Amino acid sequence: MRRISIVSSVLVGLGASFGVYVLFLQTPVISLSRLAFVFVLFLAFTAANYFFTLHYLKERLTTAVARKPYIVSLCILLPLLFLPLFYATPVYPINPLLRQWTDVAVQYDVNANSHPLDFSKSAVRLQIDKDVLDARSFRVVGIWKSTGDTFSLDPGMSAALQWVGTASASMLLTLQAPAASGTLTIYWDQSRSVFELSPDAPKQIVMARKFSTPWGVGVLLYIAAYILIAWLLFVLTVLFDGKFNLIKLVEGAGSSRVLLVLLAIILAVVTVKLQLDSLNGGADSYIHGAQLARHEAVLQGQAPNPWQYRVLSEYVAEGFIRLF
Fold first, then answer.
1. Which run of H or E residues covers position 182?
2. DSSP code for 288
3. In Å, how far from its chain's centre is CA 165?
């Protein structure tokens, strides 16, 4: 029993503290004070849960685990069934500890018959959130002739500028490619783009990247939510086990027609809501866009398969459209 209390308390403490940090305590820079506060929260949640389970639920937990294993199975299965329906991926984090890392490199290759390549620090701009970095924020690779504000490369030479750091949800790389003969190659993580330099006039190159929430953050937050919900269900079931009979309650609810109708309506509303939330752009834009266009195409006999063969439901829908 003591081992169960220790393991469950540690898991609850980790899940609660991680969830609080991701949802409420993130900052654009690493805050040691907030990390210390999260550690204090972990200790508080762990200690409180351990004291509560060991001193108030010890006998009930032993009885529930030993004599009523269906309670444990129910508390494990219910979150597995319903949590995926309501769990939403968290927004892209603002804390560097939770962000994805990215590597950007700009390589200049100047032909031997070209004139020297010259550009200023503002010719290379990398926008991260509201911050804009110029060429001075990049690490120089190769033999550059740099004065800090200007960068120069002799004919027949090759050199690069590299930046490695945490990525924001969207990043924008803007280059004013100087007038020279050669190539400019952009390496961004696993992608590679090559541009020809013009000896007559400079050109502007713009590249944008979007990053989604790192899968590790989403998985950890999902596990944290699952642990907390499953443990809360288990504790509530154990606490109220002696005050009502779950089996008799379900049987009594099954004999009530009003309750069954109400439950069916609630489940139908939840199902329709989940379906509407899955539509691109929301229900209104989807219905008045793709759905209405497909409906008109079916009535005109011009819809692709398999929609063109489902004419009965479309005629019924058209009747209700005209009625309303």
1. strand 182-188
2. I
3. 19
